Automatic annotation (TrEMBL):
The gene is potA. PROSITE patterns: ABC_TRANSPORTER_1, ABC_TRANSPORTER_2. It is an enzyme of class 7 (translocase). Residues 13-241 form the ABC transporter domain. It catalyses: ATP + H2O + polyamine-[polyamine-binding protein]Side 1 = ADP + phosphate + polyamineSide 2 + [polyamine-binding protein]Side 1. Part of the ABC transporter complex PotABCD involved in spermidine/putrescine import. Responsible for energy coupling to the transport system. This is Spermidine/putrescine import ATP-binding protein PotA.
Amino acid sequence: AQQQGRFDHQGDLEIVSVTKRFGDFVAVDDLTLTVPQGSFFALLGASGCGKTTTLRMVAGLETPTSGRIELGGKDIAGLKPYKRPVNTVFQSYALFPHMTVEDNVAFGLRRTGASDVRTKVGEMLELVQLEQYAKRRPAQLSGGQQQRVALGRALINRPQVLLLDEPLGALDLKLRRSMQLELKRIQTEVGITFVHVTHDQEEAMTMADTIAVMNAGRIEQLGAPADLYEHPQSTFVANFLGQSNLLEGVVTRAGSGEYDVTVQGAGLRATRVTASGISGRCWIGVRPEKVTLQPPGEGHDAGLNRLSGGRVEDVSFVGVSTQYLIGMPWGQELAAFEQNTGKRSSFAVGDQVDLTWMPDHTFLLDSAQDAS
Ligand code: ATP
């Protein structure tokens, strides 16, 4: 049902050339992005990159210095926060301590004069799986349960966009993991656009359909989780989403998506490159879990990339994998992760090894665009 006085234009959320300055400081720098209606979108970045400021501008808690924020093609900049079809869930939950769970959830309906409050609250408690806790007060709930109350309260009046600002930040790791899956289930069920702010790359990758990686007020790269992970387009994204081995090289041959690169005298290939026009100096990269260690000269397969002359510097057992640190003759340390299958780890500190991996698992970055 449409709620009176609320803006109800369906559609994508669009942030168009939005800049936010605090004095001389540019917190958000000419940001443009589209969040498709019904998607689970993550704004991912380190502390201070401008993600919360972006969210607050969508919520109406902060005014852009310039640019437009549109929903379904209509500018929402002129609307007061409570007139926007947007709700926010904060890390702090901000529940009312003296109210029961059901009253906290019903609070979201207070401006709408809805008639069937009891039914709606009942449905919402079911969605966030808190039916048995309806009469409790927040202090009698766990952190995860309190987070569900905050979520129920924010969703009950069916906003078109739900903004989540580090909503799982206060939970311990195990609970975070289960709430991530829970949030994803709830988002799929309600079909509301979720914009989730986090600095945790695993969290963003677990939940979001699309991730925008932010750095210094700008978007570094936007795409599906696997796309960003497998085809990072800058060293920043390569390092921010998981661990990367990045090697400086020179392009010796460029074809369509296929490149030959020389690194420290070794010829390497990258065969699934999405960026085009890379030439001269470059970064060539591979994820540690894609690297296989071999005794020197063994397992020779002409199709594989190979770097010789490594020495195992460190071996750590981390449950699902064993993580090796390999010192290379030119002074760089590279990482290789081996899946633990019950066998003992194959190499020990001091062993000589070659690193091999498939050209398909190799990414390539233009070194002109970032010098980090
Ligand atoms: P965090 O994860 O730490 O919240 P963030 O990426 O969400 O970081 P923002 O909160 O958006 O970052 O802040 C971006 C930058 O803008 C920061 O450098 C911050 O200090 C600055 N900033 C934010 N709000 C204000 C303000 N009201 N006045 C001045 N500077 C501000």
